[in-house]
UniProtKB/TrEMBL annotation:
EC class name: hydrolase
Major location category of this protein: membrane
Swiss-Prot/TrEMBL keywords: GTP-binding, Lipoprotein, Nucleotide-binding, Prenylation
Protein's name according to its UniProt entry: small monomeric GTPase
Enzyme Commission number(s) from the entry: 3.6.5.2
Cross-referenced PROSITE patterns: RAB, RAS, RHO
Organism: Gasterosteus aculeatus aculeatus
Compositional bias (Low complexity): 9-20
Length: 245
């Protein structure tokens, strides 16, 4: 496959006023460069295990985290980027939060965090119209967030691109004593699914890698065989659980 060293390749996306973000404490107009994460006014260095240089990526894909308020979107992204968990008081995202550019499988992923609150929905719709991948989160300890999955899928089908890569993440798994037993209905959504924990880091990297692999596969001009996202995730999740103490 021939690859161009360009920030705007095949999968490159444009967003309404990219960079003019409001977020959790970042204030209006907060910006983050491709190599840093800005949060609460603090510039966080990139986690060393994830390459963030904008010099070596081939194609920029836009990945967005969506889902109800409080399901853990920001924490998942911070866990992925910084390897840390944002414990303590919960500050809701306002509009669209920090923009992160990372390189995964030699593809640049531009990752956006969105506000889960209803009042920001029109803003987030405008942004995920050109998203290449959406990670839809719910909280496995919160039934309302599970019940809202269908409504989210309806919105996604209405506003996102038809071929958007979509994955459902049940976050906060194995963190709380009282987990809801609501997984049985998941197949009905027909969307690849996996469990994550932003708190422990369980499967967080896998979620982003799986999406990157799917995007990578789709960008091949003549993929010899179809990449099966759910199969890949199942296989990798098994190997995670088999090796956990
Ligand atoms: N136990 C546990 N708590 C979590 C986890 N992920 C997030 N939380 C907590 O859940 C709360 C909400 O997390 P956020 O990441 O801010 O939620 P959000 O989805 O970004 O919310 P909005 O910005 O309002 O859309 C915070 O108090 C987090 O500490 C997790 O995996 N396990």
């Amino acid at each position: 496959m021939s690859r161009k060293k360009s920030a705007k390749g095949k999968g490159a996306t444009s967003s309404p006023s990219a960079g003019s973000l409001t977020g959790k404490g970042t204030g209006k107009g907060a910006r983050s460069s491709p190599a840093i994460v800005q949060m609460n006014g603090v510039v966080h260095p990139i986690r060393p295990s994830v390459s963030c240089s904008s010099d070596f990526y081939d194609i920029a894909f836009k990945v967005m985290l969506v889902g109800d308020s409080g399901v853990g979107k920001t924490c998942l992204l911070v866990r992925f980027k910084d390897g840390a968990f944002l414990a303590g008081s919960f500050i809701s995202t306002v509009g669209i939060d920090f923009r992160v550019m990372i390189t995964l499988l030699s593809y640049a992923l531009q990752i956006w965090d969105t506000a889960g609150q209803e009042r920001f929905r029109s803003v987030t719709h405008a942004y995920y119209r050109d998203a290449n991948a959406l990670l839809l989160l719910y909280d496995v300890t919160n039934k309302t967030s599970f019940d809202n999955i269908q409504a989210w899928l309806t919105e996604i089908h209405e506003y996102a691109q038809q071929d958007v890569v979509l994955m459902l993440l049940g976050n906060k798994v194995r963190d709380r004593v009282k987990e809801l037993q609501i997984y049985s209905g998941l197949e009905e959504f027909g969307v690849p699914f996996m469990e994550t924990s932003a708190r422990s880091g369980l499967n967080v990297e896998l979620a982003f890698t799986a999406v990157a692999k799917e995007l990578q596969h789709r960008s091949l001009e003549d993929p010899s065989e179809k990449f099966k996202l759910q199969e890949y995730v199942n296989k990798e999740m098994k190997s995670t659980s088999c090796c956990r103490s």
